[in-house]
Specification:
With 306 residues, the protein is mainly α. It has one domain. The protein has twelve helices and no strands. It is globular and about 55 Å long. The two termini are 30 Å apart.
Length: 306
């Protein structure tokens, strides 16, 4: 077992990196390079895939034991989380229409800042002054990167900041709403229940805001059938992001996941620049590096407080 486990963990981490970076780059490619401009419909496709594949993984493949919803109250809490989750994913996809992946990742790295803010506002949870101090380079790095970003777009920036804040609020809300032992769900079961609710939220939003999506997508498919394959593959990857995220945490720890996530962001930036060839400046890369360094310090400070 000692020889098998490390290699298993390494392959899980590689799969997690591949699925995370892959879905991010495919989202960008679909929304910016294919004439497909429907972030709400794209998110709905992701949630449909997560609904189906989550059920298969839990009910049939027994990846994790199935957990049941115990009450209407618990269902209401999960529905609330699903709404915030939808909001964050849609806004993130909208931002990719206007911002390069590298800048999108720089803004996304500020999640710890928003998590600390919402934890205080919602739970009155105070961190040590050292932890708060580490958030200064996190924010300063994004300010520097924003000022030096050649492809800066104000609307895209607002959408990306909003998506990052929504992701942070979802994690804090999850800790508040599902705090009792009888209501706690592991991430895979939570996704299985959240995804169908997300689809029911996103379907009317798609009909109202992206009403021509089916006809336009069909027209794009007649010109190049690959867009259908991209959508299917992209949606499947969205599920595997969650699956591998769970497996990395299971085989390592939540803190290791956070550290690996910081490195993943840097890898995604490099890969996206190579693929999309978006212009970057020295000050922009310096700002992003400062943000990543701040997030690393934040992780270390949280580790020291435990």
């Amino acid at each position: 077992m000692k020889t098998v486990l490390p290699w298993t963990t390494i392959w899980i981490v590689i799969s997690w990196y591949g699925s995370n970076i892959g879905v991010l780059l495919l989202n960008k490619y679909l929304l910016s390079n294919c004439g497909f401009k429907f972030p709400i419909f794209l998110t709905m496709c992701h949630m449909l895939a997560c609904s189906l594949l989550s059920y298969i993984a839990i009910a049939w493949l027994k990846v994790v034991p199935m957990q049941t919803i115990g009450s209407i109250k618990q269902f209401g809490k999960i529905a609330g989380l699903s709404l915030v989750f939808c909001f964050s994913v849609v806004l993130g996809n909208v931002s990719l229409r206007y911002l390069p992946v590298s800048f999108n990742q720089a803004i996304g790295a500020t999640t710890p800042f928003f998590t600390a803010v919402f934890a205080y506002l919602m739970m009155k949870k105070m961190e040590t002054w050292v932890t708060y101090a580490t958030l200064i380079p996190v924010v300063a790095g994004v300010v520097i990167a924003s000022g030096a970003e050649p492809s800066f777009h104000l609307f895209g920036f607002i959408m990306c900041i909003s998506a990052t804040a929504a992701r942070a609020s979802k994690s804090v809300l999850q800790a508040i709403l599902l705090s009792s032992e009888e209501e706690k769900l592991n991430s895979m079961n939570l996704l299985m229940y959240m995804a169908p609710i997300a689809v029911t939220i996103l379907l009317p939003a798609t009909v109202m805001m992206e009403r021509n999506v089916i006809s336009i997508t069909a027209g794009l498919a007649r010109k190049d059938m690959r867009i259908v394959y991209y959508l299917i593959f992209n949606s499947s990857l969205a599920y595997f992001v969650n699956l591998t995220n769970f497996l990395v945490t299971k085989h390592t720890s939540a803190l290791t996941l956070q550290v690996l996530g910081n490195a993943k962001g840097a890898v995604a930036v490099v890969v996206s620049i190579i693929i999309f060839k978006n212009p970057v400046s020295f000050m922009g890369m310096l700002g992003y590096s400062l943000t990543v360094f701040g997030v690393f310090l934040y992780s270390e400070s949280k580790k020291g407080n435990k």
